[in-house]
Design brief:
Elements lengths: L4 E11 L4 E7 L4 E3 L2 E3 L8 H13 L3 E4 L2 E2 L2 E2 L3 E6 L4 E11 L10 E5 L11 H14 L10
Parallel strand pairs: 1-9
Antiparallel strand pairs: 1-2, 1-4, 2-3, 2-10, 5-9, 6-7, 8-9
Length: about 150
């Protein structure tokens, strides 16, 4: 049986001032990921609106999409295709900055220090590498990474 293709949008929320990224624990997949979810077809939702909505629903914070601009519009940082227990997924990924940082009402989210992200064995290596690349590319003045 062929899995139905599903479209999602997500955001890597990086607090550049405090050098951390907001990740959430996905209970279905049993891993730490960037916040995101399904694009609402019934409402003809635009992908960046999905990323903003899902960030608020899953973490309680508002975000501002940042990153590359083309023709006056913010562009995704990546589009990834993967299959998992949820289905055949196309995820449109954005870079965002938090407009607030209080996640105290959410027990499945955490701010992860970017300088020591490699020390956290509960985060997939691909997420760690993407976060470090995004931080380095968009952080003014460069960065460094600490030792475990």
């Amino acid at each position: 049986m062929t899995k139905k293709r599903q479209y999602t949008a997500s955001a890597y929320i990086i607090d550049f001032k405090n050098h951390c990224v907001l990740l959430m624990y996905n209970r279905k997949l049993r891993k730490w990921l960037q916040p995101g979810g399904h694009i609402l077809d019934s409402e003809l939702e635009l992908p960046w609106h999905t990323a903003i909505r899902e960030a608020k629903e899953e973490t309680g914070i508002d975000i501002n999409i940042v990153g590359p601009v083309l023709n006056g519009r913010r562009q995704p940082i990546a589009v990834e295709h993967y299959s998992n227990s949820v289905g055949d997924m196309i995820d449109i990924q954005y870079l965002a900055e938090p407009l607030s940082t209080d996640i105290s009402d959410y027990d499945n989210v955490c701010w992860q220090d970017i300088f020591t992200i490699d020390c956290n064995n509960n985060i997939d290596d691909e997420i760690k590498e993407k976060v470090k690349r995004l931080y380095t590319k968009y952080q003014i003045g460069g960065s460094y990474y600490g030792k475990c």
